């Protein structure tokens, strides 16, 4: 069904229709705008893929610090309950 759906002559007809609808002066501007948009989209997707992740050692240190803080809070709570 979709086999050979878009042949070169289809593209030629599409180009002629676009030229008639938008005019020869606006097409280059539109193409530039689409190109800029695609570049921005590509840069953003690349940035999301390579988003900075903390190195494993830093993550382990952060986890240890969180555990130590949690333990300190628990000890403070226990002391407060003993004195109350």
What does this structure look like?
The protein is 80% helix and 0% strand. With 84 residues, the protein is mostly helical. The longest helix is centred in the C-terminal third of the chain and has 28 residues, at 56-83.
Write down the Rg. 30 Å
Topology as a string of helices (H) and strands (E) = HHH
Strand segment count: 0
Give the structural class: mainly alpha
Helix fraction, binned, reads: over 70%
Put the structure in a nutshell.
With 84 residues, the protein is mainly α. The protein contains three helices and no strands.
Question: How would the blueprint of this fold be written?
Answer:
Blueprint: H1 8-22, H2 26-49, H3 56-83
Question: Can you give keywords for this protein?
Answer:
mainly alpha, 84 residues, 3 helices
């Amino acid at each position: 069904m979709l086999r050979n759906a878009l042949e070169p002559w289809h593209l030629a007809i599409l180009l002629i229709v676009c030229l008639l609808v938008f005019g020869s002066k606006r097409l280059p501007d539109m193409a530039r705008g689409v190109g800029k948009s695609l570049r921005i989209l590509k840069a953003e997707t690349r940035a999301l893929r390579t988003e900075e992740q903390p190195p494993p050692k830093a993550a382990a240190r952060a986890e240890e610090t969180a555990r130590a803080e949690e333990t300190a809070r628990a000890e403070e709570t226990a002391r407060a309950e003993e004195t109350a």
